[in-house]
Specification:
Blueprint (H helix, E strand, L loop, with lengths): L5 E2 L9 E7 L13 H9 L1 E7 L5 H10 L3 H4 L15 H7 L3 E6 L16 E4 L11 H4 L4 H11 L5 H14 L7 H14 L5 E7 L10 H7 L6 H5 L5 H5 L7 H31 L6 E7 L4 E2 L5 E2 L6 H4 E2 L1 E4 L7 E8 L3 H9 L1 E2 L1 H6 L17 E5 L6 H8 L4 H4 L5 E5 L3 E6 L4 E5 L15 H16 L14 H9 L4
Parallel strand pairs: 2-6, 2-7, 3-12, 4-5, 4-6
Antiparallel strand pairs: 1-13, 3-10, 3-11, 7-11, 8-9, 14-15, 15-16, 16-17
Length: 494
């Protein structure tokens, strides 16, 4: 074995850099040549993974698994403890100590230094800010009218640097492209950075959040995907508040869900066009041929499926089956691969591809490299967890006073095991579901009562898997900045 962080230059001769793009809230079932032509081309030229799964159904724990190779039980970043503890090695740290320039651009408030995700990055930027600042002026954006926007500006302008705050307000209110949630400016910044950087190899991480609630694509994109007879005005007037929907504060018709699915698909198409721009920037900088370019979702989304809106409270494939495409180096011309893989396999895979040996990162988790030449054992099952509700039931009660019994039942931990053909989900409250995926790919029919012996076998394997993990005992939530709370509330998390 080579020394830690030593690069094996003879094993991989044509991959020097790594770009990891996370399309926040992109679900596999909605990615197609129509919604994602750029990603489709990358898949045709590279390798696509048709059975890729997140370890969790929402941003914080899923990204923590991507960064550490650990399940939520191990890394401890979830609804009950909203921070990635610093005793875990991260992918960015491995690249940094391997001699890489490490840069991140996040458009999701969870993926910032506030929640422990900056370790190992030379620069982790907040994509929603024109000038990087600890003061978030997002309350101005959310103002319903001029009076509210003015009041928000007065409340926040003198927190930190007033000139920087004013610039961020002007950007969000005047100069930010209509229907854009950060993708345009993020890709612009990356293009400029590529032009001015030095000669070191680089690891670039980018989270693009357009497919996340609220779905507000530019009109030209929305009109391509809305059902016949639906107008842009009708679609964008639909209330998008997943937690209020869950708590029966309002209802959505099937037609309204169809319109929302149209807007969601339009958001995928919009962000896909920015993937094309990112590729063009890498080509213009002369880096494309030397780069492993990886695109994945961090979790999926319910838009009426199973009676849900958003991505909380369950582990249906709609939430954990995500797109995953690798382009470049050994993944060139790899075709479509059907084996089961998990996002926590990314650290082992990326490091193997560029020849970095980092025992601390690789040994702390349970990732398995899916490098084409890896001699590791392939998965015959994937595992996922929902460790704690986010937002908590207490927070829902504080917001809505009375909440339905259906929602109270979600105050539980869920774990799932999924093979190619079947899936079993159980909760710490005795809840369980079993699905025969060959005959029921949409997980509509629970057969747990009909197949008790198979349920027992899968339950035992699930328990053995998670009992073998060194569970994190960390508890408690991080006290967030006010601006962060408001942005997370806008995204439906609080």
């Amino acid at each position: 074995m080579s020394e830690p962080n030593e690069r094996d230059g003879e094993s991989h001769t044509n991959v020097r850099n790594v770009v990891l793009v996370v399309l926040d809230t992109a679900r596999a079932k909605s990615v197609s040549p129509e919604t994602a032509p750029t990603l489709t081309t990358l898949a045709e030229e590279g390798t696509s993974f048709e059975n890729a799964f997140a370890t969790a159904p929402w941003t914080l724990p899923s990204h923590a698994s991507i960064f550490t190779g650990c399940y939520p039980s191990e890394h401890g970043a979830h609804g009950g403890h909203t921070f990635l503890d610093d005793d875990l090695r991260t992918l960015a740290e491995a690249f940094s100590e391997g001699g890489y320039e490490t840069v991140g651009v996040s458009n999701n408030t969870w993926i910032t230094e506030e929640f422990g995700f900056d370790r190992g990055f030379d620069d982790l930027r907040k994509g929603w800010q024109y000038i990087q600042s600890d003061t978030d002026m997002g309350a101005v954006v959310r103002g319903e009218d001029a009076r509210e926007k003015l009041q928000a500006t007065r409340d926040r302008l003198f927190e930190g640097n007033p000139l920087v705050n004013a610039a961020n307000v002007l950007y969000s209110e005047v100069f930010q492209p209509t229907g854009d949630d950060g993708a345009s400016r993020s890709v612009d910044w990356i293009g400029d950075w590529l032009e001015g950087r030095g000669d070191d190899p680089f690891f670039l991480f980018c989270n693009l959040i357009e497919p996340h609630v609220e779905y507000d694509p530019p009109r030209s994109y929305a009109e391509r995907f809305l059902p016949e007879g639906a107008s842009y005005e009708e679609a964008t007037a639909i209330r998008q508040d997943p937690r209020a929907f869950d708590c029966e504060d309002y209802d959505l018709t099937e037609r309204e869900f169809r319109l929302l699915r149209g807007l969601y698909r339009a958001e995928l198409a919009y962000v896909d066009d920015h993937l094309a721009r990112l590729r063009e920037s890498l080509e213009a900088a002369g880096e494309w041929e030397d780069t492993l370019f990886v695109v994945c979702g961090d979790h999926g989304e319910h838009i009426g499926e199973h009676g849900f809106f958003g991505h909380q409270y369950n582990l249906y494939d709609t939430l954990i089956n995500v797109p995953l495409v690798c382009h470049g180096g050994p993944f060139t011309g790899g075709g479509r691969r059907r084996e089961l893989v998990q996002l926590l396999d990314l650290p082992a895979t990326l490091l193997e591809t560029v020849g970095i040996d980092d025992p601390e990162l690789l040994e702390q988790g349970h990732g398995r490299s899916f490098h084409p030449d890896s001699d590791g054992e392939r998965r015959d099952a994937i595992f996922a967890e929902y460790a704690a509700p986010q937002p908590s039931i207490d927070r829902l009660e504080a917001r809505f006073d009375e909440i339905p019994d259906r929602v109270r039942a979600f105050d539980r931990r869920l774990r799932a095991i999924r093979t190619h053909d079947e899936k079993y989900v159980c909760g710490d409250d005795g809840f369980e579901r079993y699905h025969d995926l060959e005959g029921d790919p949409d997980e509509r029919t629970d057969l747990a009562a009909d197949r008790p012996e198979r349920v027992r076998e899968l339950r035992k394997r699930l328990e053995e898997h998670f009992d073998s993990l060194e569970a994190s005992e960390a508890g408690g939530e991080v006290e967030m900045q006010a601006g962060t709370k408001e942005r997370l509330a806008d995204l439906g998390y609080l």
